[in-house]
Specification:
This protein is of the alpha/beta class. The protein has helices at 2-9, 12-15, 79-86, 111-114, 136-144, 148-153, 218-224, 253-260, 265-268, 288-295, and strands at 21-27, 59-64, 69-73, 103-105, 130-134, 157-161, 168-170, 175-181, 192-198, 201-206, 227-231, 271-274, 299-300, 306-309. The chain is built from 10 helices and 14 strands. The model is unreliable at 5-12 (pLDDT under 50). The structure holds zinc ion (3 copies). The site of one zinc ion has 4 residues, from loops.
Length: 311
């Protein structure tokens, strides 16, 4: 019996308990983070005048436990602490002294999603040939505009264009990543979301979108994927008194929940909200809006959450 247990522990069957990939949530706040500069309301400042506990801008990392390879999705202004958080995962292995991860995927050129690249430059970590995957337009923007062009000319980063809809295989095909275009303010780059596949399961990372469309339909994302992390900047139009929120894009949490209300509970549980504005009451565990989200069978992605793909 004891011998049998030893055999089981050494068998490939037991080793298969390790997931193909671990997705680590590294932040869940809109670009400006929390506390947000200039906000004097209770969301960002405590009653005694001290700042509220810091929360990081939306980002995830994917770690492949079998190889120790890791990939960051969006390089936020909080990237220093986020890599430190990632490095505490037992499955994470730093690739080498000049690389904190094996590659970085970027969604778009708004401040919360790419300016963390500055920490890969000469004045900071000075990474060596770090692949930065993004759209063709975004890759050109990085190559042609300072300060980012200096990271390219010094070989800190290698902008690597991905075509939307064309899957990229990584790490001996353990991981497959496909970008897809989404509607958003596109001043310096276009905007993409990512479909991440490993071990026969898939996860959507879509932190910023102006509205759900026929092509990018949250219902279909939830039907067709095992885990879905989506833009939840605002809870509802009541959130910022005095502002015409109807004129500010982003699908409201209440509307996204209404789109999915009649799905079976097992499907609803696939959805996690991320990229919450500092003013979004759902950021606070125990708030009325957080309780409404959870009662409806959805979740808010929390920093430190780990989602396993391919169990
Ligand atoms: Zn954003
Ligand atoms: Zn605030
Ligand atoms: Zn944006």
């Amino acid at each position: 019996m004891f011998f049998g247990l030893l055999l089981l522990l050494g068998s490939p069957y037991f080793a298969a308990a390790e997931p193909a990939a671990e997705v680590v949530v590294l932040g869940n706040v809109q670009d400006a983070g929390l506390p947000q500069l200039g906000c004097e309301r209770r969301c960002c400042v405590r009653e005694d005048g001290a700042p509220q506990s810091r929360r990081f801008t939306a980002s995830i990392a994917v770690v492949l436990p079998a190889s120790g390879r890791s990939f960051l999705f969006d390089a936020t202004p909080d990237v220093r602490e986020q890599i430190a958080l990632l490095s505490r995962r037992p499955s994470y292995q730093r690739p080498n002294a000049r690389r904190p991860v094996d590659g970085v995927f970027l969604t778009h050129a708004h401040m919360g999603h790419y300016t963390g690249l500055m920490h890969f430059g000469f004045e900071a970590m000075a990474t060596r040939d770090l692949p930065v995957y993004c759209s063709e337009r975004f890759a050109s923007y990085l190559r042609e505009n300072g300060p980012w062009s200096q990271l390219v000319s010094m070989s800190n980063i290698v902008p690597t264009a991905m075509m939307p809809g064309e899957p990229l295989s990584l790490s001996d095909e353990v991981l497959r990543v496909t970008s897809f275009l989404v509607p958003h303010r596109d001043e310096y780059s276009d905007t993409v979301g990512y479909r991440i596949e490993a071990g026969g399961e898939s996860l959507i990372f879509l932190p910023d979108i102006d509205r759900w469309t026929e092509d990018i339909d949250v219902r279909r994302l939830v039907e067709e994927n095992d885990h879905v992390l989506v833009d939840a900047t605002f809870y509802s139009n009541d959130e910022l008194p005095g502002r015409d929120l109807a004129a500010i894009p982003h699908p409201r949490i209440v509307d996204t929940m209404a789109c999915l209300a009649d799905l079976p509970a097992e499907r609803r549980a696939r959805l996690r909200f991320t990229h919450l504005n500092h003013s979004n009451p759902a950021l606070q565990p125990g708030s009325e809006s957080r309780r409404a989200i959870e009662a409806a069978g959805f979740r808010v992605a929390e920093t430190g959450d780990v989602i396993r793909l391919g169990r």
